Automatic annotation (TrEMBL):
Ranges of residues in domain Amidase: 50-480
Protein name as catalogued: Amidase
Lineage of the species this protein comes from: Bacteria, Bacillati, Actinomycetota, Actinomycetes, Propionibacteriales
Keyword Hydrolase annotated: yes
Native source organism of the sequence: Kribbella antibiotica
Keyword entries, A-Z: Hydrolase
Length: 507
């Protein structure tokens, strides 16, 4: 069914950067790379002052949320140096002096990079930054520290709890402290929601950015795989892994993506306000809807907003099943074995060098590492036979068919620019004994395909944030940014800024 653009247009205004931080409205001037203090006082905030403010905020709030596992002792010094550069007329770019939090599976020189595991926590920090961190520093960003994550990015045991790691402890959702922050980029999403930073980096293999973005009420973008260098990231799968931005607004994600991809494309140019006239968006109901009535209700309102923006919605479509669970597991298991060994070879001598080493370490420290869930996914991966295995090759073909063919065929057959769906079920109760209870999500097709996703807050279900996911073919990152920014702009016009968390228990 084709739903034409709504004839009842709400007022559309270009909204480049409203964000809600600490209950006050701030604006971010992308063109000049300046952060402005609370508009009520309208004074410029230096990078050093902003870092001091965020560190004070962290001392007050992070004991409740536990999003940051390793603060950077150099953050204030770096901020002061960048302020001096600006005073001397050297501005590196739009993000000069902007504080950024890095997920703790991304190499950051001088800071522990642990993937949440004690096996890496006892090793020296990486000798150099991952390429994406090098790009952040070159752009003038201040590294605030490392964000906690689900240990080994939720690929050690099948009953893991998102947000828990032996190194970082348990991260909680700022909107409901007894509810999950999602994972595996748990700390990155929770930190942005809690006002500990406006800019964070997450990583995704299958849902690890868009899930915590949705559950924490922030923007999360998983770019096309390969758009951002994978080197220096603790791996699961080279065919699916990517880093990506997690921010308060779509514009901020676009600016961060510009830096992370090397600056060849300015993705902020695609944040063009709320007019989507001439855009065709597909709505694949199966199998991405129906697991949460409250989420479906919020998403129906989101579709109306997109229609009022001028988009033509092609409704009641369906994606094929994204391959069997065993096929997906075969791909990840086979790729992890070799990818992990290659990564561990870059770390200091004397530490673990293979999956077998990590498995042995966990057994030797079972009272901490294995206290809540096991390592059967590690053990399965260690037993694989390499990428020449017929099992792997058949599973990879199946994964691509279920992912790329499903998405591309739907786009082509219906002349669509992108797809839209509910992001993830509302945050589930934290249960360290039984693990996560995820009702459904939007990430599997794009994960298998290596295609981009962008989740943007869409509303609340009984006080819990939920999101709307835009997806498309490989390389459609700019299109998704345009659509998500238009939706964000129109939703804020219609409903107001997204509410800030109150750090209470959900009942």
């Amino acid at each position: 069914m084709v739903r034409p653009p709504s004839t009842l247009r709400s007022e559309q205004q270009q909204c480049h950067s409203p964000v809600q931080r600490h209950g006050a409205c701030r604006t971010w001037a992308a063109g000049q790379g300046q952060l402005w203090q609370d508009q009520r006082v309208s004074s410029t905030l230096s990078s050093q002052a902003l870092v001091e403010e965020l560190q004070a905020r962290s001392r007050a709030v992070d004991p409740l949320v536990n999003a940051i596992c390793t603060p950077s002792p150099a953050a204030l010094t770096d901020a002061a140096r960048l302020d001096t550069e600006r005073d001397q007329g050297r501005v590196r770019g739009p993000l000069h002096g902007v504080p950024v939090l890095i997920k703790d599976n991304i190499d950051t020189a001088g800071l522990a990079t642990t993937a949440g595991s004690l096996a890496l926590a006892g090793q020296p920090p990486p000798p150099q930054d991952a390429p994406l961190v090098q790009r952040l520093r070159a752009a003038g960003c201040v590294i605030l520290g490392k964000a906690n994550l689900s240990e080994w990015a939720n690929f050690r045991g099948s009953h893991s709890s998102s947000g828990w790691s032996a190194y970082g402890g348990l991260t909680r959702n700022p909107y409901a402290l007894n509810r999950s922050p999602g994972g595996s980029s748990s700390g990155s999403g929770a930190a942005v929601a809690a006002g500990l930073t406006d800019f964070a980096i997450g990583t995704e293999t299958n849902g690890s950015i868009v899930c915590p973005a949705a559950l924490n009420g922030v923007v999360g973008m998983k770019p096309t795989v390969g758009l951002i260098p994978q080197q220096g990231i603790v791996p699961i799968s080279h065919s699916q892994d990517t880093a990506g931005p997690m921010t308060k607004t779509v514009l901020q994600s676009a600016a961060l993506l510009t830096v992370l991809t090397g600056g060849g494309t300015d993705y902020t140019e695609h944040c063009r306000g709320a007019d989507l006239t001439g855009v065709r968006i597909g709505v694949p109901r199966g199998p991405l809807w129906g697991y949460s009535p409250g989420l479906d209700e919020v998403t129906e309102r989101a579709l109306e907003i997109l229609s009022r923006c001028g988009a033509t919605l092609v409704d009641h479509l369906s994606l094929p099943s994204p391959g069997g669970d065993q096929d997906q597991l075969h791909v990840l298991s086979h790729e992890m074995k070799g990818d992990m060994a290659a990564y561990l070879a870059t770390r200091a001598p004397g530490g673990p060098k293979t999956l077998d080493d990590l498995i042995s370490f966990n057994r030797d420290h079972a009272d901490v590492e294995l206290q809540w869930f096991g390592q059967e996914l590690f053990e399965r991966s260690a037993a694989t036979e390499g990428l020449d295995s017929p099992t792997y090759m058949a599973a990879r073909v199946s994964a691509l068919a279920g992912g790329r063919d499903g998405i591309d065929d739907l786009l082509r057959d219906n002349q669509l620019d992108a797809l839209v769906s509910p992001s993830y079920s509302p945050a589930w109760s934290i249960d360290l004994v039984n693990g996560d209870n995820v009702l459904g999500g939007s990430s599997s097709h794009a994960a298998l395909a290596g295609y981009p996703l962008l989740s943007v807050p869409s509303g609340l279900v009984t006080g819990l944030p939920v999101g709307l996911t835009f997806s498309g073919t490989g390389g459609s990152d700019a299109t998704l940014i345009r659509l998500a920014h238009a939706f964000e702009t129109a939703r804020i016009t219609a409903e107001g800024p997204f509410p800030t968390p109150e750090f209470t228990q959900w009942v």
